[in-house]
Amino acid sequence: xxxxxxNKILExxxxxxxxxxxxxxxxxxxxxxxxxxxxxxxxxxxxxEEEYDEDDWDGSxxxxxxxxxxxx
Length: 72
Known about the structure:
Number of helices: 3
Shape: globular
Number of strands: 0
Structural class: mainly alpha
Mean pLDDT: 81
Radius of gyration: 15 Å
Order of helices and strands: HHH
Helix content: 40-55%
Number of domains: 2
Low-confidence stretches: none
Strand content: under 5%
């Protein structure tokens, strides 16, 4: 499966058509808190943050038939 929309948005950011910060804010506002937490965890964004407790995130928001939490 190609990521046509993803690739188009990235291309538009690279070309200066879309503002990078606007795209970031749009994504974060669109995603659920569980999606944002999962993305942050997967990318180790909070690795050095004292207020982030890895025990608070256990992956339980993933449905069994969709282990990566991908949109279908």
